[in-house]
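Appendix B. One record, verbatim.
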Amino acid sequence: MTRLLDKVAIVTGASSGIGHAAARLFARHGARLVVSARRKTEIDALVAAIHDDGGEAVAVLGDIGEERVAEALVETAVTRFGGLHIAFNNAGTLGEIGSVFDLSLSGWREALDTNLTGAFLAAKYQVPVMLECGGGSLIFTSTFVGHTVGFPGMAAYAASKAGLVGLIQVIAAEFGPKGIRANALLPGGTDTPMGRAVANTPEARAYVESLHALKRLASPDEIAQAALHLASDESSFVTGSAFLVDGGLSISRA
């Protein structure tokens, strides 16, 4: 089954974790891909793997907090594949960890610039091309942190990711009549390099696992499947949502 046949998709943060899994999955479902990350070796390996599987992909290297990168991603989608229908704006950073009164202004700005301003810049360039193509689906990776749970030391990360929910609600309201959907994907604890940086000891991992109703972490492939749902026409009546894929973390008290 090819749920994204004849669709053109952007996936950012694609060198590892959720973005990497989603890029491979989208390609298997027929999408032609523009993938992005900051690490050349890893993103080139992803493109090669997609080609080996019979898919189509091209890489754009850079930091999604920079406007030129947001513009280049869309220009590449148009020039190489003729348009844009899906954007999985997944790239992000933990930023500086620390108590609010210890957090540096530069650390705060790093998280906001990457996680929130980068998302704004992505939408700024993606939406006009999607309108020309008759509509599309924008997906932004947020998190349960700052939405249903507050973790000490993660103020910058939580604030920047929570801001995505407000952003997608406005995009959904502004452009829904023209066929554009926008949703925030809120994963629970996931076994990715970023997740392992937080749960960096066996004890910390066990604690994070225990917070979930399912008592385990997600795999990147499980979160990618949720992104595929939001990207596909199977979610045609879903927009403006904070889409929790959190293993029951938000409702678990046991």
